[in-house]
Design a protein that fits this description.
heterodimer; A: mainly alpha; Helix Hairpins; 8 helices; globular; B: mainly alpha; 65% helix; binds protoporphyrin IX containing FE; binds copper (II) ion
Chain lengths: 296, 530
């Protein structure tokens, strides 16, 4: 607890916060330029911003790692980091909650309402609309002769195919990262590295399969981001999740490299734990996706 | 050496030059930057409201075209909420939370600096939209689709500014949680925390739960506009009303994110100038926590007229009403604190009592609007504008200003000019009521909000309202003057500053040294706040 410390660690002034702010600022400017159609110049600004963000993470974490290795951190700093990481993950949960909320709202409420015979939209706009899920045909497709803004879906991805494999892969990776943690706590470094490598590999396989699934969806099933609300929720949820898996796998890879360099001790390895927490969070989100996006 | 080993008094020198501010890891400096930034944005947003009131001074279109008028209404709100109120609250927290809990600094000082520095850059993004094709956001701060999607080149920057501000708020909130949970001095148990600290932990949890949802919502707006998704397009199976649900799931907790720090401030001020401990400390903590909890279940009271199922209308009506209970607990506790106290009425106390009275006016109109059937009449009229300005201006801004007067002597070491402070209070209080009270009348009579022109029957009240607005705006310059004067000199403040002040922050010198509590103080019942 806090009370056990009689000295505190306060970092010296640091340039990373302002570098980080500038990096994000440049990335946002570039992103806005690209979206507004100034792609020629915007892409470079965006790329510069993203590189700066990567540089930021490298530099900031390097400082923290150096301080940690130099033994400047006490238990209190460790606990502060833990609180920070835990609530950061909670904020991520709430971010996903917005998209899950959109999924539930459309499935459970708004699409059935569009199909109600007594609803105004049904009477005056889309009398032939069928409220079903998965929604292959959007309301505006039901009007003969009108060109829809959206693309009709031929078929959706069945749950008990790639998604089921991916579930198995992520669950396994949750186990392997735990084995790595046990190995670390026993001081068995080679086992630590091997289990971590296995976890990273499983993460990469997951992302690879997800990309393959997207290719299949786009090319054979006409399931795209532009396929009405089914495609919107499908790709935004799985897309943000896939992005998080990529981030998580990258972080695990960094931890793997650090483990090979001999960082971390049996008792002092918060970075490892933070990444493991993150990995479990990504895992749990996937279970939600598997059940509500693919399965039921 | 990259570490300030505390215990070492040589380390109290401050870094010099611009680097002191750009690279700061000091909660006091960062707090100061937050407060100064908030004050600047208060005047930027205030200037916009002056444009609005000038245009509404008379019926007809006088000074600005309707599109620009709508931009003023929209950006005024965004600037005030995200640029003035929230940063001011975080600034107070930065300064006071470590001092109040006996911590040397915030738990994560570098992240603290980033939380601040994001703000000027985020507002550069937002305000630059004025110079873009299609102008600044004009669809209202609530950003409802499909209207907001008609914005031109400014649209991505609106969304990114919200993302950016969200990152800042979440980092700030995480920092406060880590600080309070992990950095309390020995003996500073939770139930000994000053209520300002309690108010801020609860606010921090609200921020972490609500801001990411807004980020998700505006991301969906972005993909709807540029990537062909159909979240808010019924033709694609989505629903524009869904955005309102997402927005208000954030939006209602957001109003408590704004108001709880102000409640926290007046919970410090009222006992001090009543020379009595706060009445009902424990019930205050639980009431604040219940308000925060309930605030996640009332969001659809902003949407009573969108055509929800009856069960929804009823649920959100009763849930909304129920928030009045813990709010009432707080109001009565503050009154009971004053009861038979030996009260004096220095400027901070005046502002705190102002909050008590005028926040309650806003609370009552809120209760009226919370009744579903009658809200059908009030919705989207000036009655709403009256309600939220009562809770925000004399409810929140007065609380923050009261806090500034209260702690200014501690921060600067000098007493502020009491005469000017009182003048500021009285002119503000009179003008704020001239400004916002008649809005109830024209609202009930049917004047819609967010429209630059109006029927002649509303002309008289609108002129009066505008005059109130101009006076209120001008009188805020007094605050600036008081602050500048106080920073530059004045009667020296004692450590305790106020006769009735208790708590760790008042045991420190005024102004406190650059690093404080480098060794943790011991807190006992006698030295704790309440
Ligand atoms: C007793 C507590 C409160 C109740 C019952 C309440 C109720 C309501 C209701 C029902 C509305 C929607 C009215 C409509 O649009 O038809 C509303 C709007 C609003 N309230 Fe409150 N409110 C309360 C406290 C607060 C507080 C403390 C704040 C701010 C700190 C606040 C800020 C707002 C804002 C900003 C709006 C308008 C949002 C907009 O449409 O732009 N309210 N309130
Ligand atoms: Cu509300």
């Amino acid at each position: 607890m806090s009370n056990s410390n009689d000295t505190y660690f306060i970092p010296e002034p640091s340039r990373w916060p302002i570098v980080g702010t500038l990096a994000l600022f440049v990335a946002f400017i570039g992103g806005g330029m690209v979206l507004n159609g100034y792609i020629g110049s915007g892409q470079y600004v965006l790329a510069l911003g993203i590189l700066a963000i990567i540089y930021l993470f490298y530099g900031w974490f390097k400082d923290v790692i150096d301080e940690s290795i130099a033994g400047k951190y006490n238990e209190q700093v460790d606990i502060s980091f833990r609180w920070g990481m835990a609530w950061f993950i909670f904020s991520e949960v709430m971010f996903f909650a917005a998209f899950f909320g959109a999924l539930f709202y459309t499935r459970v409420l708004s699409i059935p309402w569009l199909g109600l015979e007594e609803s105004v939209s049904n009477q005056f706009l889309w009398p032939d609309f069928q409220a079903v899920w998965p929604l292959l045909t959007t309301p505006d497709m039901t009007i003969a002769g009108l060109e829809s803004k959206y693309i009709a879906i031929k078929e959706v991805i069945p749950a008990w195919d790639i998604p089921a494999w991916n579930t198995a892969i992520l669950l396994t990776s949750g186990a392997t990262v735990t084995f790595a943690h046990w190995a670390l706590k026993k001081g068995n470094r080679s086992a630590l590295c091997w289990w971590l490598a296995a976890t990273v590999l499983l993460g990469i396989i997951f992302v690879y399969l997800q990309v393959a699934e997207y290719g299949h969806a786009y090319h054979e099933l006409d399931l795209t981001l532009k396929s009405g609300v089914y495609g919107s929720t499908f790709f935004m949820l799985t897309g943000f999740h896939g992005f998080h898996v990529t981030m998580g796998a990258t972080m695990l890879a960094v931890i793997l490299v650090r483990s090979m360099l001999g960082h971390f001790s049996e008792h002092n390895h918060f970075a490892f734990e933070a990444v493991a927490w993150y990995w479990h969070f990504v895992d749990v989100v996937w279970l939600g996706l598997f059940v509500f996006v693919y399965w039921v | 050496m990259s570490e300030a080993v505390i215990h070492d008094d040589h380390h109290d020198h401050k870094p010099s030059g611009i680097g002191r501010w750009l690279f700061s890891t000091n909660h006091k400096d960062i707090g100061t930057m937050y407060l100064v930034f908030a004050l600047i944005m208060f005047f930027v947003g205030g200037a916009m409201s002056m444009v609005i009131r000038a245009e509404l001074f008379q019926p007809g279109i006088q000074y600005v075209d309707p599109q620009f008028y709508n931009s003023m209404v929209t950006v005024h709100a965004l600037v005030m909420i995200f640029g003035a109120l929230m940063p001011a609250g975080v600034g107070l927290a930065n300064w006071m939370v470590p001092l109040m809990i006996g911590a040397p600094d915030m738990a994560l000082p570098r992240m603290n600096n980033m939380s601040f520095w994001i703000l000027p850059f985020a507002f550069t993004l937002l305000l630059s939209t004025f110079f873009m094709q299609g102008g600044a956001p004009a669809g209202g701060w609530t950003m409802y689709p499909p209207l907001v999607l008609q914005l031109g080149d400014g649209f991505p920057y609106l969304v990114f500014a919200v993302h950016f501000l969200g990152i800042s708020s979440i980092m700030g909130a995480i920092n406060i949680i880590a600080t309070v949970f992990n950095m309390r001095a020995p003996g500073m148990t939770f139930m000994r925390l000053p209520l300002f600290v309690w108010a801020w932990i609860i606010t921090a949890f609200l921020l972490i739960a609500a801001m990411p949802v807004l980020a998700g919502g505006v991301t969906m707006l972005l993909t709807d506009k540029y990537f062909g998704t159909a979240f808010f397009d019924a033709a694609g199976g989505g629903d524009p009303v869904m955005f309102q649900h997402i927005f208000w799931f954030f939006g209602h907790p957001e109003v408590y994110i704004l108001v709880l720090p102000s409640f926290g401030v007046i919970s410090q001020i009222i006992p001090t100038f009543s020379r009595k401990p706060l009445f009902g400390y424990t019930s205050m903590v639980y009431a604040t926590a219940s308000i925060a909890f309930l605030s996640f279940f009332v969001w659809a009271h902003h949407m009573f007229t969108v055509g929800m199922p009856l069960t929804g209308e009823l649920f959100f009506m009763y849930a909304t009403m129920s928030i009045a209970v813990p709010t009432g607990v707080k109001i009565f506790n503050w009154m009971a604190t004053m009861w038979r106290g030996s009260m004096t009425f220095e400027t901070p106390m005046l502002f705190a009592i102002g909050v008590l009275f005028m926040f309650s006016i806003g609370g009552f109109s809120g209760l009226m609007m919370g009744i579903t059937p009658v809200d059908f009449q009030y919705h989207d009229t000036y009655f709403i504008v009256a309600h939220f300005h009562y809770v925000i201006v004399p409810g929140i801004i007065f609380g923050i200003i009261g806090g500034i007067y209260f702690w200014l002597p501690k921060w600067t070491g000098n007493m502020y000019d009491e005469k000017l402070g009182k003048l500021h209070f009285w002119i503000s209080t009179i003008s704020v009521n001239v400004l916002f009270f008649p809005m109830h009348f024209i609202g009930l009579a049917g004047m819609p909000r967010r429209i630059p022109d109006y029927s002649v029957q509303f002309a008289d009240w609108n002129s009066i309202i505008s005059i109130g607005g101009f006076v209120f705006g001008a009188s805020q310059l007094i605050l600036v003057w008081v602050v500048i004067k106080c920073v530059r000199g004045g009667e020296k403040a004692t450590d305790q500053v106020w006769e009735g002040a208790h708590g760790l922050e008042w045991t420190l010198p005024s102004p406190p040294p650059f690093h404080t509590f480098t060794t943790p103080p011991k807190v006992t019942d006698a030295t704790a706040h309440s």
